[in-house]
Amino acid sequence: MTDHRIMIVDDHPVVREGYRRLIDLQPGLQIVAEAEDARSAYARFREAMPDAVVMDVTLPGASGIEAIRHIRQYDDAAKIVVFTMHQGSAFALKAIEAGAAGYVTKSSAPDTLIKAIFGVLKGRTMISPDVIEAIAQDRIAGSGTRLRDLSTRQTEILRLLASGWPVERIAEALSISLKTVRNNHYHIKSVLGLETDAQMVWFAMEAGLVQGPREEDA
User: Which PROSITE patterns does the entry link to (predicted)?
Assistant: First the structure.
């Protein structure tokens, strides 16, 4: 039986080494490609065409959510498992909306990730129990509802703006025009009912999109 071909995406070499040790030891799985940011993830995916991708959402520059969206535009059958420190519902819901089939936190047991990989390979949606609980709690509390009104692209622009990125850098990172960034900047504040950029930053922090007002490389 041929091994399933896996690509891993994380900006930390030590973490990628941990992926290799865990995944390559599993019968039926083989790592065939690696990437360290969203742009190289898209390029490596097109080169290797793996059966599944294991990706962090916190990457230098554009986030893993942007990488998911881009990869799924190229191949709508791509199977992607997010493996991240983010336990909040905001990233999880946006990752799934962008096309991720799995979402597992790094605080989960190692076998949770392996089960998620095999699950998405079989066409299932796999979410770790702690994330399911966070989503349920947010639904009950009614929090995060305004964030759901933003598209995945708008959520990414919000995250980068709140991290202190200038519009020129955002436009370059996302391969869009300055006008598109500025229009979305205005629209994001309008949808969220925010009047100032400071309010936008605080909203992003409370939603778990950024850890601080100037998170340069979230």
Answer: HTH_LUXR_2 (PS50043), RESPONSE_REGULATORY (PS50110)
